[in-house]
Amino acid sequence: xxxxxxxxxxxxxxxxxxxxxxxxxxxxxxxxxxxxxxxxxxxxxxxxxxxxxxxxxxxxxxxxxxxxxxxxxxxxxxxxxxxxxxxxxxxxxxxxxxxxxxxxxxxxxxxxxxxxxxxxxxxxxxxxxxxxxxxxxxxxxxxxxxxxxxxxxxxxxxxxxxxxxxxxxxxxxxxxxxxxxxxxxxxxxxxxxxxxxxxxxxxxxxxxxxxxxxxxxxxxxxxxxxxxxxxxxxxxxxxxxxxxxxxxxxxxxxxxxxxxxxxxxxxxxxxxxx
Length: 274
What we know:
The protein is mostly helical. The protein has helices spanning 2-22, 39-46, 48-79, 85-99, 102-127, 141-165, 169-177, 182-211, 214-219, 226-235, 240-273.
């Protein structure tokens, strides 16, 4: 069993290790190591196209993380009041939304947005005053943000609901017995107990949105996110610069995931203590 586990881990992590190793290649070939150098990191950081794609992904991921955290936390709190068969149905829908492949979400979002745009664009052109150019809905930042938020919101719901389920209900009941308003109970009792889960959901949403390629590829339009830029660069040929960009994205994503796991583990310890 240990041998099997070792083989699985090697199969998973050797390719990642090779990407990191060849990102320090002194030569121009991505698969032929000719000494060690950090020159490709300098070229990647000075590449204006990669920089624009990076900041586009960063902006989208930050907005998605905020929206997912707010909407996911609100939905998790609302679902706690739902009981019976409806609760089972809603739980199933949440887990199904996570299990759906990204390519299905990308195609479904693309078709839905194209249908909406085809309906509203002629309507706006008809209602807009003559002599003025009406706004035209199209694929771009908003479509990527909407698609990523729909996907990552389910993650936040699951994380926050797990923390809510482990909360000490006696504190909430004590607050209500002291005639505290529902809003005051939420801010002073509920929120301090669930904020680590909200923060973990924020970091996971940010990471998934920043790293996503499939959904962004379908709905980004003329905008280029960093994963889409890396894919386009690979189609022109793999270079050590692509390896360097991939390594930097890997380090950043792992850092955020480790921080999220830290908050989630601390949250579980507090839940056990309480």
